[in-house]
Hints:
- Helix 8 crosses helix 9.
- The protein is α/β, with parallel strands linked by helices.
- Helices cover 37% and strands 15% of the residues.
- It folds into 2 domains: 186 residues, Isopropylmalate Dehydrogenase, CATH 3.40.718.10; 143 residues, Isopropylmalate Dehydrogenase (3-Layer(aba) Sandwich), CATH 3.40.718.
- The N and C termini lie close together (9 Å).
- The longest helix has 18 residues.
Amino acid sequence: MPTGPLALSLGDPGGIGPEIIVGAWQRLKRDGPRFVVVGDADLIRQVGGFVTRIDTPGQVDAVFAHAIPVLHQPVAAPVEVGVPDPAQAASVIGWIEAAVSLALSGAASGVVTCPIAKAPLYAAGFRFPGHTEFIAELTASIPWAGARGPVMMLTAEDLRVCLVTIHVPLHEVPGLVTIDRVVQTARVADQAMRRDFGINRPRLALAGLNPHAGEAGTLGVEERDVLVPAVEHLRSEGIDISLPLPADTMFHAEARRRYDAAICLYHDQGLIPVKTLDFWGGVNATLGLPVIRTSPDHGVGFDIAGQGVARPDSLIAAIRLAADMAGNRARQ
Protein backbone atom coordinates (compact mmCIF):
# COMPACT_ATOMS: atom_id res chain seq x y z
CA MET A 1 0.00 0.00 0.00
CA PRO A 2 1.45 3.40 -0.99
CA THR A 3 2.51 5.68 1.83
CA GLY A 4 3.52 8.70 -0.24
CA PRO A 5 1.89 12.15 -0.27
CA LEU A 6 -1.53 12.84 -1.68
CA ALA A 7 -1.68 14.02 -5.30
CA LEU A 8 -3.77 17.18 -5.56
CA SER A 9 -5.01 18.23 -9.01
CA LEU A 10 -5.29 22.01 -9.38
CA GLY A 11 -8.79 22.10 -10.91
CA ASP A 12 -10.03 24.87 -13.19
CA PRO A 13 -7.19 27.40 -13.60
CA GLY A 14 -9.60 30.33 -13.70
CA GLY A 15 -11.35 29.31 -10.49
CA ILE A 16 -10.46 29.34 -6.80
CA GLY A 17 -8.30 26.21 -6.92
CA PRO A 18 -4.95 28.01 -6.61
CA GLU A 19 -6.23 30.16 -3.72
CA ILE A 20 -7.64 27.32 -1.64
CA ILE A 21 -4.49 25.27 -2.24
CA VAL A 22 -2.44 28.09 -0.72
CA GLY A 23 -4.86 28.36 2.20
CA ALA A 24 -4.80 24.62 2.81
CA TRP A 25 -1.01 24.45 2.72
CA GLN A 26 -0.72 27.32 5.20
CA ARG A 27 -2.88 25.37 7.67
CA LEU A 28 -1.29 21.96 7.07
CA LYS A 29 2.39 22.69 6.44
CA ARG A 30 3.55 22.04 10.01
CA ASP A 31 1.81 18.83 10.99
CA GLY A 32 -0.92 18.07 8.47
CA PRO A 33 -1.09 15.49 5.69
CA ARG A 34 1.45 16.04 2.94
CA PHE A 35 0.41 16.67 -0.64
CA VAL A 36 1.92 17.49 -4.00
CA VAL A 37 0.06 19.67 -6.47
CA VAL A 38 -0.27 18.55 -10.08
CA GLY A 39 -0.73 21.72 -12.10
CA ASP A 40 0.78 25.03 -13.09
CA ALA A 41 3.18 26.32 -10.42
CA ASP A 42 2.95 29.89 -11.69
CA LEU A 43 -0.81 30.06 -11.04
CA ILE A 44 -0.21 29.21 -7.38
CA ARG A 45 2.65 31.68 -7.12
CA GLN A 46 0.46 34.44 -8.57
CA VAL A 47 -1.98 34.16 -5.65
CA GLY A 48 0.77 34.42 -3.05
CA GLY A 49 1.88 30.84 -2.65
CA PHE A 50 5.45 29.84 -1.84
CA VAL A 51 6.14 27.22 -4.50
CA THR A 52 8.88 24.72 -5.18
CA ARG A 53 8.86 22.70 -8.38
CA ILE A 54 9.77 19.08 -7.80
CA ASP A 55 10.35 16.15 -10.11
CA THR A 56 8.89 13.27 -8.09
CA PRO A 57 6.52 12.90 -5.10
CA GLY A 58 9.46 11.48 -3.16
CA GLN A 59 10.80 15.02 -2.78
CA VAL A 60 7.73 16.31 -0.92
CA ASP A 61 9.05 15.68 2.61
CA ALA A 62 12.10 17.85 2.03
CA VAL A 63 10.12 20.93 0.96
CA PHE A 64 6.60 20.74 2.39
CA ALA A 65 7.27 22.71 5.56
CA HIS A 66 8.45 25.80 3.67
CA ALA A 67 6.89 25.62 0.19
CA ILE A 68 4.07 24.04 -1.79
CA PRO A 69 5.55 21.18 -3.83
CA VAL A 70 4.31 21.23 -7.42
CA LEU A 71 4.76 18.82 -10.28
CA HIS A 72 4.69 21.61 -12.85
CA GLN A 73 2.48 21.10 -15.88
CA PRO A 74 1.85 24.52 -17.46
CA VAL A 75 -1.55 25.66 -18.67
CA ALA A 76 -2.28 25.36 -22.36
CA ALA A 77 -3.39 28.99 -22.82
CA PRO A 78 -3.36 32.30 -20.92
CA VAL A 79 -5.71 32.31 -17.93
CA GLU A 80 -8.33 34.98 -17.26
CA VAL A 81 -9.27 34.68 -13.62
CA GLY A 82 -12.98 34.13 -13.09
CA VAL A 83 -13.66 33.14 -16.69
CA PRO A 84 -14.35 29.58 -17.92
CA ASP A 85 -12.33 28.71 -21.00
CA PRO A 86 -12.49 25.52 -23.12
CA ALA A 87 -8.87 26.22 -24.13
CA GLN A 88 -7.87 25.08 -20.63
CA ALA A 89 -9.69 21.74 -20.87
CA ALA A 90 -6.65 19.74 -21.96
CA SER A 91 -4.67 21.02 -18.98
CA VAL A 92 -7.48 20.31 -16.49
CA ILE A 93 -7.95 16.78 -17.82
CA GLY A 94 -4.21 16.16 -17.94
CA TRP A 95 -3.77 17.17 -14.30
CA ILE A 96 -6.46 14.72 -13.20
CA GLU A 97 -4.94 11.94 -15.29
CA ALA A 98 -1.48 12.59 -13.86
CA ALA A 99 -2.74 12.60 -10.26
CA VAL A 100 -4.59 9.32 -10.77
CA SER A 101 -1.53 7.81 -12.43
CA LEU A 102 0.58 8.72 -9.40
CA ALA A 103 -1.89 6.96 -7.11
CA LEU A 104 -2.09 3.88 -9.33
CA SER A 105 1.70 3.63 -9.44
CA GLY A 106 1.97 3.84 -5.65
CA ALA A 107 3.86 7.13 -5.73
CA ALA A 108 0.86 8.87 -4.14
CA SER A 109 -1.42 7.51 -1.43
CA GLY A 110 -4.57 9.04 -2.89
CA VAL A 111 -6.04 11.78 -5.08
CA VAL A 112 -7.66 15.05 -4.01
CA THR A 113 -9.29 17.01 -6.82
CA CYS A 114 -9.90 20.74 -6.78
CA PRO A 115 -13.17 21.81 -8.44
CA ILE A 116 -13.62 21.79 -12.20
CA ALA A 117 -16.14 23.61 -14.37
CA LYS A 118 -18.13 21.17 -16.47
CA ALA A 119 -19.33 23.46 -19.29
CA PRO A 120 -15.89 24.38 -20.74
CA LEU A 121 -14.85 20.74 -20.55
CA TYR A 122 -17.98 19.64 -22.39
CA ALA A 123 -17.36 22.34 -25.00
CA ALA A 124 -13.93 20.81 -25.58
CA GLY A 125 -15.37 17.30 -26.01
CA PHE A 126 -15.11 15.89 -22.48
CA ARG A 127 -17.64 13.06 -22.37
CA PHE A 128 -17.95 12.35 -18.65
CA PRO A 129 -20.49 13.94 -16.26
CA GLY A 130 -17.68 14.84 -13.85
CA HIS A 131 -14.67 13.75 -11.81
CA THR A 132 -16.40 10.70 -10.36
CA GLU A 133 -17.15 9.02 -13.67
CA PHE A 134 -13.86 10.09 -15.26
CA ILE A 135 -11.74 8.62 -12.47
CA ALA A 136 -13.83 5.45 -12.60
CA GLU A 137 -12.94 5.15 -16.30
CA LEU A 138 -9.24 5.82 -15.64
CA THR A 139 -9.17 2.97 -13.10
CA ALA A 140 -11.53 0.57 -14.89
CA SER A 141 -8.80 -1.86 -15.96
CA ILE A 142 -7.26 -2.13 -12.49
CA PRO A 143 -8.22 -5.27 -10.52
CA TRP A 144 -10.39 -4.56 -7.49
CA ALA A 145 -11.44 -6.97 -4.77
CA GLY A 146 -15.04 -6.40 -3.82
CA ALA A 147 -18.00 -4.35 -5.02
CA ARG A 148 -16.99 -1.86 -7.69
CA GLY A 149 -18.01 1.77 -7.66
CA PRO A 150 -18.06 4.56 -8.31
CA VAL A 151 -20.38 5.55 -5.50
CA MET A 152 -20.49 9.20 -4.52
CA MET A 153 -20.34 9.80 -0.79
CA LEU A 154 -20.74 13.19 0.89
CA THR A 155 -19.65 13.65 4.46
CA ALA A 156 -19.77 16.38 7.09
CA GLU A 157 -18.96 15.96 10.77
CA ASP A 158 -20.52 12.61 11.81
CA LEU A 159 -22.76 12.22 8.73
CA ARG A 160 -21.95 10.13 5.66
CA VAL A 161 -24.43 9.82 2.79
CA CYS A 162 -24.01 7.60 -0.28
CA LEU A 163 -26.06 8.33 -3.39
CA VAL A 164 -27.90 5.81 -5.57
CA THR A 165 -28.49 8.44 -8.29
CA ILE A 166 -26.50 11.63 -8.70
CA HIS A 167 -26.87 14.32 -11.34
CA VAL A 168 -30.17 13.44 -12.97
CA PRO A 169 -33.48 15.34 -13.20
CA LEU A 170 -35.78 14.60 -10.30
CA HIS A 171 -38.52 13.21 -12.54
CA GLU A 172 -36.14 10.48 -13.71
CA VAL A 173 -35.22 9.28 -10.20
CA PRO A 174 -38.06 6.77 -9.61
CA GLY A 175 -37.21 4.87 -12.77
CA LEU A 176 -33.50 4.81 -11.91
CA VAL A 177 -33.97 3.58 -8.34
CA THR A 178 -33.87 -0.15 -9.05
CA ILE A 179 -33.20 -3.13 -6.82
CA ASP A 180 -29.85 -3.69 -8.53
CA ARG A 181 -28.71 -0.07 -8.08
CA VAL A 182 -29.70 0.04 -4.43
CA VAL A 183 -27.99 -3.30 -3.75
CA GLN A 184 -24.79 -2.29 -5.51
CA THR A 185 -24.62 1.10 -3.79
CA ALA A 186 -25.10 -0.49 -0.38
CA ARG A 187 -22.51 -3.18 -1.08
CA VAL A 188 -19.93 -0.56 -2.03
CA ALA A 189 -20.81 1.53 1.02
CA ASP A 190 -20.58 -1.46 3.38
CA GLN A 191 -17.18 -2.49 2.06
CA ALA A 192 -15.88 1.10 2.06
CA MET A 193 -16.89 1.55 5.68
CA ARG A 194 -14.75 -1.47 6.51
CA ARG A 195 -11.81 -0.80 4.18
CA ASP A 196 -11.59 2.99 4.15
CA PHE A 197 -13.11 3.97 7.49
CA GLY A 198 -12.03 1.12 9.75
CA ILE A 199 -15.59 0.25 10.86
CA ASN A 200 -15.72 -3.51 11.41
CA ARG A 201 -19.51 -3.86 11.57
CA PRO A 202 -21.00 -0.99 9.59
CA ARG A 203 -24.63 -0.03 10.02
CA LEU A 204 -26.41 1.38 6.98
CA ALA A 205 -29.65 3.37 6.97
CA LEU A 206 -31.73 3.40 3.80
CA ALA A 207 -33.84 6.47 3.02
CA GLY A 208 -37.29 6.04 1.54
CA LEU A 209 -38.18 7.70 -1.73
CA ASN A 210 -41.67 8.89 -0.84
CA PRO A 211 -43.02 10.94 2.08
CA HIS A 212 -43.29 8.80 5.22
CA ALA A 213 -41.41 6.05 3.32
CA GLY A 214 -44.54 5.36 1.28
CA GLU A 215 -46.95 5.00 4.21
CA ALA A 216 -47.56 1.29 3.48
CA GLY A 217 -48.10 1.97 -0.20
CA THR A 218 -50.60 4.79 0.17
CA LEU A 219 -48.02 7.48 -0.71
CA GLY A 220 -46.03 5.49 -3.25
CA VAL A 221 -45.08 1.91 -3.99
CA GLU A 222 -41.30 2.16 -4.54
CA GLU A 223 -40.56 1.23 -0.93
CA ARG A 224 -42.69 -1.91 -1.21
CA ASP A 225 -41.67 -2.94 -4.71
CA VAL A 226 -38.00 -1.90 -4.84
CA LEU A 227 -36.48 -0.89 -1.54
CA VAL A 228 -37.76 -3.65 0.74
CA PRO A 229 -36.70 -6.41 -1.71
CA ALA A 230 -33.27 -4.74 -1.95
CA VAL A 231 -32.97 -4.72 1.84
CA GLU A 232 -33.95 -8.39 2.05
CA HIS A 233 -31.28 -9.26 -0.53
CA LEU A 234 -28.61 -7.24 1.28
CA ARG A 235 -29.46 -8.75 4.62
CA SER A 236 -29.13 -12.22 3.11
CA GLU A 237 -25.51 -11.22 2.31
CA GLY A 238 -24.90 -10.24 5.92
CA ILE A 239 -25.12 -6.48 5.40
CA ASP A 240 -26.69 -4.56 8.28
CA ILE A 241 -29.15 -2.18 6.65
CA SER A 242 -32.44 -0.69 7.83
CA LEU A 243 -35.79 -0.94 6.13
CA PRO A 244 -36.68 2.25 4.23
CA LEU A 245 -36.90 5.18 6.64
CA PRO A 246 -38.75 8.48 6.27
CA ALA A 247 -36.02 10.82 5.06
CA ASP A 248 -37.30 13.74 7.12
CA THR A 249 -36.47 11.96 10.40
CA MET A 250 -33.08 10.45 9.49
CA PHE A 251 -30.65 13.29 9.94
CA HIS A 252 -31.06 14.86 13.36
CA ALA A 253 -28.30 14.21 15.90
CA GLU A 254 -29.97 11.33 17.73
CA ALA A 255 -30.86 9.55 14.49
CA ARG A 256 -27.31 9.87 13.14
CA ARG A 257 -25.98 7.90 16.12
CA ARG A 258 -27.88 4.84 14.88
CA TYR A 259 -25.96 4.35 11.63
CA ASP A 260 -22.52 4.76 10.07
CA ALA A 261 -23.69 5.73 6.58
CA ALA A 262 -27.00 6.64 4.99
CA ILE A 263 -28.01 5.39 1.55
CA CYS A 264 -29.89 8.23 -0.15
CA LEU A 265 -31.76 7.89 -3.40
CA TYR A 266 -31.22 11.23 -5.09
CA HIS A 267 -28.92 14.24 -5.00
CA ASP A 268 -30.71 16.73 -2.78
CA GLN A 269 -31.96 14.08 -0.36
CA GLY A 270 -28.35 13.52 0.66
CA LEU A 271 -26.73 16.90 0.03
CA ILE A 272 -29.21 19.10 1.87
CA PRO A 273 -28.50 17.51 5.28
CA VAL A 274 -24.73 17.45 4.62
CA LYS A 275 -24.59 21.13 3.67
CA THR A 276 -26.93 22.13 6.46
CA LEU A 277 -24.76 20.35 9.01
CA ASP A 278 -21.47 21.86 7.77
CA PHE A 279 -21.76 24.13 4.76
CA TRP A 280 -18.07 25.05 4.63
CA GLY A 281 -16.48 21.73 5.58
CA GLY A 282 -18.31 19.08 3.55
CA VAL A 283 -16.33 16.58 1.50
CA ASN A 284 -17.12 14.57 -1.62
CA ALA A 285 -15.48 11.12 -1.73
CA THR A 286 -15.63 8.42 -4.37
CA LEU A 287 -16.06 4.90 -2.99
CA GLY A 288 -15.38 1.52 -4.53
CA LEU A 289 -12.33 2.32 -6.69
CA PRO A 290 -8.69 1.17 -6.58
CA VAL A 291 -7.59 4.72 -5.74
CA ILE A 292 -8.77 6.96 -2.94
CA ARG A 293 -10.33 10.16 -4.21
CA THR A 294 -11.82 13.08 -2.30
CA SER A 295 -12.77 16.61 -3.26
CA PRO A 296 -14.13 19.80 -1.74
CA ASP A 297 -17.90 19.85 -1.75
CA HIS A 298 -18.21 23.11 -3.70
CA GLY A 299 -17.70 24.49 -7.17
CA VAL A 300 -15.05 26.50 -8.97
CA GLY A 301 -16.12 29.89 -7.56
CA PHE A 302 -15.63 31.97 -10.70
CA ASP A 303 -17.59 34.80 -9.06
CA ILE A 304 -15.07 35.18 -6.21
CA ALA A 305 -11.87 33.97 -7.90
CA GLY A 306 -8.94 36.31 -7.48
CA GLN A 307 -10.52 38.28 -4.63
CA GLY A 308 -8.69 36.49 -1.81
CA VAL A 309 -11.91 35.51 -0.02
CA ALA A 310 -12.21 31.83 -0.95
CA ARG A 311 -12.26 29.61 2.14
CA PRO A 312 -10.07 26.48 2.14
CA ASP A 313 -12.11 24.64 4.81
CA SER A 314 -13.61 22.03 2.49
CA LEU A 315 -10.30 21.35 0.75
CA ILE A 316 -8.57 20.92 4.12
CA ALA A 317 -11.30 18.49 5.18
CA ALA A 318 -10.91 16.61 1.88
CA ILE A 319 -7.15 16.31 2.36
CA ARG A 320 -7.56 15.07 5.93
CA LEU A 321 -10.22 12.55 4.91
CA ALA A 322 -8.12 11.20 2.04
CA ALA A 323 -5.17 10.76 4.39
CA ASP A 324 -7.36 8.95 6.94
CA MET A 325 -8.78 6.66 4.25
CA ALA A 326 -5.27 5.88 2.98
CA GLY A 327 -4.17 5.04 6.51
CA ASN A 328 -7.12 2.69 7.01
CA ARG A 329 -6.42 0.91 3.72
CA ALA A 330 -2.78 0.53 4.72
CA ARG A 331 -3.83 -1.23 7.91
CA GLN A 332 -5.98 -3.83 6.13
